[in-house]
Amino acid sequence: MALTNMHIAKIPESLMNGIISSLISTGRLQGNLIAGRSIFVPQCYTHAEDTYVNSFYSQNGYIEWNYLKRLNIADPGSYLKTKLPNAIHLPGLTINTLLVDQLKSLISGVIRDVSWIDLTHYIPSGLDSNETSALINPLLKDSPVKLIDTYLIADKFIENCENFLDTYLKKKAQTAFYREHRAILSIPPQQQSVEVNAPKQGVMSSKGGFGFGAREIKTKNVKKKYNPSRRKAGNLSTNSDTEANFHSGFGDSHSLMKDLFARYVLMDEFFQVLCAEANE
């Protein structure tokens, strides 16, 4: 109840604060007067609020500070540290020690079994990536485990992945090379030379002409003699140029690798390979 509304009854706010404080101190009025805000909170309301918070915390093993702000608790951190002194208090989150013990057990299991685990089934669903890191990283310390998004992965498992994923990635790399190479070879030579020949033709036509004062330029058509060795060399140079275009025609090598990886390495297949190896 806000005491600032007492001005309607023409009662000075300072006088009302003094009266209520006196009633609270003598035990005739059960509640608290929030200093500086002139708000009286009945004891029954505080008791119901504490009961609700304790019940939520006991059932879920955690409670978010933003949730308490919606309950008109101005300073959730101080409130929870007072009400739950044995809990673990992170920025924006208070967690039961039982949940922390469970997470420690999961970390030990991942190291022992050389495997990985998805934490989304064990941590509060409302946590963002920063809150998850704040919760998990202190528990890892120097453990041979990596936290990637919401996954705990043993370092030894990552090393093993390099072996059984090597064959999979090599096949995908070969598939990407042959498909892209075939696509380049399928482009007609005339289409490849359009951009090269077009500017030259434009320059010749602008300088030539048949008007007065113009100078006519005559050219002879020279028939090329057949030369097998030259023809063979020409084919080799064409192939080498095509392969060079495969590497340079897509921009820098880093962007090319990212593009090819995204197109040929499917995450569903990737996870299937990981799961199959983990189940063996």
What does this structure look like?
- It is a single chain.
- This protein is mainly alpha-helical and 280 residues long.
- The protein has 11 helices and 8 strands.
- Helix 5 (97-113) packs across helix 6 (129-140).
- The chain starts with 12 loop residues before the first helix and ends with a helix.
- The relative contact order is 0.05.
- One of its GO terms (cellular component) is endoplasmic reticulum membrane.
- This is E3 UFM1-protein ligase 1-like N-terminal domain-containing protein.
- One of its GO terms (molecular function) is UFM1 ligase activity.
- Please give the share of residues in helix: 55-70%
* Overall morphology: elongated
Roughly how many Å apart are the termini?
65 Å
Fraction of residues in β-strands: 5-15%
**What is the element string, with H for helices and E for strands?**
HEEHEHHEEHEHEEHHHHH
Order of strands across the widest beta sheet? 3-5-4
- The overall average pLDDT, rounded, is 72
Uncertain segments of ≥5 residues (pLDDT<50)? 200-214, 225-240, 242-251
Whole-number radius of gyration? 38 Å
Q: Assign the structural class, choosing from mainly alpha, mainly beta, alpha/beta, alpha+beta, or little secondary structure.
A: mainly alpha
- Tally of separate helices: 11
Number of strands: 8
Q: Characterize the biggest β-sheet.
A: 3 strands, antiparallel
GO cellular component, one term: endoplasmic reticulum membrane
GO molecular function, one term: UFM1 ligase activity
Organism: Schistosoma mekongi
Pfam families: E3_UFM1_ligase
